[in-house]
Specification:
Strand content: 5-15%
Oligomer: single chain
CATH class of the largest domain: Alpha Beta
Order of helices and strands: HEHHEHEHHHEHHHEHEEHEHEHEEHHHHH
Structural class: alpha/beta
Largest sheet: 5 strands, mixed
Distance between the termini: 71 Å
Strand order of the largest sheet: 8-5-9-4-10
CATH topology of the largest domain: D-Maltodextrin-Binding Protein, domain 2
Shape: globular
Radius of gyration: 23 Å
Length: about 500
């Protein structure tokens, strides 16, 4: 037996060595492509000008601040932070600029006011805005941002938004017609880590469910990880541990979720709920459809199950604390919650959010609405400087930061499991947003519909009907604003 184990370990080391070599070769080719992509920036010289990047931090860790770079004199030694600093140094050297990230507000709902004050003074104080999607996306509808598709009008055509370091699917959801005011992608740790996923307790799954269902990753690969499968599994796990006949956090639970908070939005994205549809005439509201009704019915059954428990809403902290205690099989939250809450948990899996049903074509990943989005204010001192810097930061994030945060940190350090890399790839490839969901604050919080009505999802059709008029009115107002105030 010992000989067999030794042979197995040797084979495993050989496999990892070959895989690492393959990944290195692939990484080298990717880096060469990025270097070539940036040829259009080489030779630019902004004479050591400062690039002021105003940002606001979200919750659950300083991910926006880390995305932009810490003070080099305050190097944490963390590999991700070091990668950001290396990226920044190369951007500064390439363009002859000095990057100056600066906090624009103490709380994540305060940046819009700071931008308004800056624009009112005509100071050209900020070169790039790094906003909190939910609170700040409306800056574009006020006419405060440049259309990033028309930077040639400013002799600043430096953004290559079709490159893979920008998220085409997500940025398309943010855009209106041919107008792109906000973009995100590898430049934002809140994009990479903001993907909603399902966390699975490895010990409980292996002890209770694996004999019947096989490896959880195989279920995902076969397209069988659905809301129905979630309900079936969670009910097999439940145990009334304290014997009081009531479901509580003292029991062995199948699924926990703060239903009044954003994770339930992530479950809607996972079922490919469609809020709007783009047509030649514009953007139309389509949330009231059979898919939404089916999602509501399935979620209603899940939330009514004795194996489900909803802790008080606290930005996912309560549900993650319960999950990390080891007595819960499933929870749904953003991937970055692993870094915040699961560093001491030895055995857990990360898989996509369940599909609506097996007929759904692939998995889908929503992104937490605090995703960092980037734009250029219309009064930027030098639009060419802003655009070139934004492009260089994005491309070199793909080269330096993503391999550390995504390949090393997310896939391996935070997940404990090499095979989880494939699962996170599936989620990242399926990341998207919907126009109305992205612009939710300007459309009567339409993206919060499922959390606001979590106790009544079995009657989702009538509740949708009651809200449609106000949503349509707000959507029309928003589209008019974008058409009227959009900066070409």
């Amino acid at each position: 037996m010992r000989k067999f184990i030794t042979i197995l370990l040797c084979l495993s080391m050989l496999f990892l060595s070959v895989a690492a070599t393959g990944c290195a070769n692939s990484g080298d080719r990717n880096n060469e492509k990025i270097d070539t992509t940036l040829d259009h920036l080489k030779g630019l010289d902004f004479e050591e000008a400062e690039v002021n990047i105003v940002y606001v931090e979200g919750g659950n860790g300083e991910f926006t601040k880390r995305s932009l770079g810490l003070d080099p004199d305050d190097d944490t030694g963390d590999s991700v932070d070091q990668a950001v600093l290396k990226r920044n140094s190369e951007v500064e050297s390439m363009l002859q600029v000095t990057l100056v990230p600066q906090s624009g507000a103490e709380h994540f709902d305060g940046l819009t006011a700071a931008i308004s004050s800056s624009l009112a003074s005509s100071s050209g104080e900020y070169d790039i805005i790094a906003g909190y999607q939910y609170f700040d996306i409306g800056i574009a509808s006020k006419g405060w941002l440049l259309n990033l598709n028309n930077l040639a009008n400013y002799d600043a055509d430096y953004l290559r938004l079709d490159e893979d370091y920008w998220s085409q699917s997500y940025n398309e959801g943010l855009s209106y017609n041919e107008n792109t005011y906000w973009v995100t992608g590898d430049i934002a740790l809140r994009f990479l880590g903001g993907m909603y996923c399902t966390f699975v307790n490895g010990d409980l799954y292996e002890a209770i469910l694996q004999k019947t269902y096989g490896h959880i990753y195989d279920l995902v690969r076969e397209g069988k990880w659905t809301l129905d499968m979630l309900l079936e599994m969670m009910e097999l796990v439940y145990k009334d541990s304290d014997g009081d006949t009531e479901t509580s956090e003292n029991d062995r639970l199948g699924f926990v979720l703060e239903t009044s908070m954003d994770p339930i939005d992530g479950m809607a994205f996972g079922s490919q709920i469609q809020w709007t549809q783009r047509t030649e005439d514009g953007i139309n509201l389509v949330l009231r459809n059979n898919r939404t009704i089916s999602f509501g019915e399935k979620m209603s059954k899940i939330l009514a199950s004795r194996s489900f428990y909803a802790p008080a809403g606290d930005d996912s902290h309560n549900q993650m604390a319960l999950f990390s205690s080891g007595n819960v099989m499933f929870t749904v939250a953003s991937v970055f919650q692993a870094e915040v809450h699961l560093m001491e948990m030895d055995n857990y899996y990360v898989i996509p959010v369940p599909k609506l049903d097996e007929n759904q074509a692939g998995y889908a990943s929503g992104i937490h609405d605090g995703c960092t989005i980037f734009g250029i204010p219309y009064d930027a001192e030098d639009v060419a400087k802003s655009a070139a810097t934004l492009e260089a930061l994005a491309a070199l994030s793909k080269k330096y930061v993503t391999p550390e945060y995504y390949d090393s940190a997310l896939k391996y350090r935070y997940t404990r499991d090499n095979e989880a890399a494939e699962m996170i790839d599936i989620m990242r490839d399926a990341a998207y947003t919907d126009f109305a969901a992205a612009w939710s604050k300007d459309i009567n919080d339409i993206a919060h519909f499922f959390r606001d009505h979590s106790s009544r999802l079995g009657r989702v059709s009538s509740i949708l009907q009651a809200n449609y008029s106000k949503w349509n009115s707000s959507l029309e107002t928003l589209l008019v604003a974008l058409e009227t105030y959009g900066i070409e």
